[in-house]
Amino acid sequence: MSARVRLNGDMVEFKCPGCGWVHSVNIDRESKPCWGFNGDVEKPTITPSINAWREYGGSRETERCHSFVTDGTIRFLGDCTHDLKGKTVDLPDIAEST
């Protein structure tokens, strides 16, 4: 069975084809911040958006990955700093990506 996300306790994780990071979001409603997850590992929907970034000092710029995961696709918003900015692609199978 293929899976585009994996469950790790109260977290949902997926391999991002834009930035290459594994994004991990909390789905435990008792903890904040909390994301919604439709429970489907093959066609996941995670709400709201995931906005991840790394800030570096000196001359290195901030890296940002901002996206929506809907029905197994990932839509990258215009503030991303990677090459998939503004594009929508299929979320890769996490078992094959990590």
Could you give a short description of this structure?
With 98 residues, the chain is mostly beta strands.
Structure write-up:
The protein is mainly β and 98 residues long. The chain has one domain. 4% of the residues lie in helices and 40% in strands. It is built from one helix and eight strands. The strands form two sheets. A five-stranded antiparallel beta sheet has the order 4-5-6-7-8, with no helix packed on it. A three-stranded antiparallel beta sheet has the order 1-2-3. The protein is globular. The mean pLDDT is 92.
Give me the secondary-structure category. mainly beta
**Beta strands, count:** 8
How many distinct folded domains? Answer: 1
Helical stretch tally: 1
Report strand order across the widest sheet: 4-5-6-7-8
* Low-confidence runs: none
Helicity, as a percent range: under 10%
How widely separated are the two ends? Answer: 16 Å
General shape: globular
Order of helices and strands: EEEEEEEEH
Average pLDDT rating: 92
The major β-sheet equals: 5 strands, antiparallel
The rounded Rg comes to 13 Å
Kindly estimate the percentage of residues that lie in beta strands according to DSSP: 35-45%
Name some characteristics of this structure:
98 residues; mainly beta; five-stranded antiparallel beta sheet; 8 strands; globular
